[in-house]
What we know:
Layout: E1 3-10, H1 16-29, E2 35-42, E3 47-49, E4 57-58, E5 65-68, E6 71-74, E7 77-80, H2 91-99, H3 108-114, H4 117-124, E8 130-132, E9 135-138, H5 144-152, E10 157-161, E11 171-173, H6 179-189, E12 193-197, E13 201-211, E14 214-217, E15 221-225, H7 232-236, E16 241-244, H8 251-267, E17 274-281, E18 287-293, H9 303-310, H10 315-326
Parallel strand pairs: 1-2, 1-7, 8-18
Antiparallel strand pairs: 2-3, 3-4, 5-6, 9-12, 10-11, 10-12, 13-14, 13-15, 13-17, 15-16, 17-18
Helix pairs in contact: 2-3
Domain ATP-grasp: 124-324
GO biological process, one term: regulation of cell shape
Subcellular location: Cytoplasm
Amino acid sequence: MKKTIALLTGGTTGEWVVSVKSAATIAQHIDTDKYDVYKIMLTDQHWFYEPADSVKIEVDRNDFSLNLNGRKIKFDGVFIAIHGSPGEDGKLQGYFDMIGMPYTTCNALTSAITMNKGYTKAIVDGIKDLKIAKSIQLFNNDESNLNEIINTLKLPYFVKPNNGGSSIGMSKVKEHNDLKEALDKAFKEDNQVLVEEFVEGREFSVGVFKTKGNIVVLPATEVIPANEFFDFEAKYTPGATEEITPGRMTEEEKNKVERVVTAIYQKLSCKGIVRIDYFLEHGTSDFYFIEINTIPGQTATSFIPQQVAAMNMGLKEFYTQVIEEAFT
């Protein structure tokens, strides 16, 4: 018997544009022989299903159901494809936990913690072979921060919002004179900001998921942005980044990366698809953790679909494994 799945898209941040594209990819590849899929749009004010006749039908949030032509549709589970809040920060996960609805992502606690880059680094610090760039976490945009950063960290810096994804609000600072502008830009996106020392190395991004209780590491993508770093434009503009999947790593590097990202997945108690970004430092090949994304993009330019293909797996099979894992 088919399961009825809600594919949840939209959101309340600037990342909703990416979310809509991700949901389109997922909807195109879900196995409709196994699942009846209803795409649910979430906005600031409304949660609704929009059938072909364009009449929006509001979701009953008491039990997350739909009333469609006098028929009550109850869902077996939810495929959450919302990047940013409230899909990636634990809010929706908490709601679904309360009503007993299975979902495809990490739980509420893991989702909330991993949205905070500084807190995440504190938790994964100590994993064997994992290194972390020296950083300062700021909680207000105060002038006194400038001296603390200059006196504590070495140029160049990465300045980025501490919460959120898609690299919105991120800057690379090479001169102290540019620091204030970078902080202002990041604080427009978030009330916490992370300032890190720049690590000279090759950048990679690797997908990790769990299926039938086993953690699977996808082939990593090596990221070579045309811009100076992998910002929002580079991430979502076709051709703005050279992407090599599988990334160029020695067997030793590949084995180390698989060990480290598996340990990260376990230590953060992850579930579903996550994407872990890291540097391999020039000269040492040391693994430097950048961040984890617990609802990575599934758009045409996103890494996860590329990596699934490099593993010789179809997206239909992949999404089936992700959905089925939600019910375990």
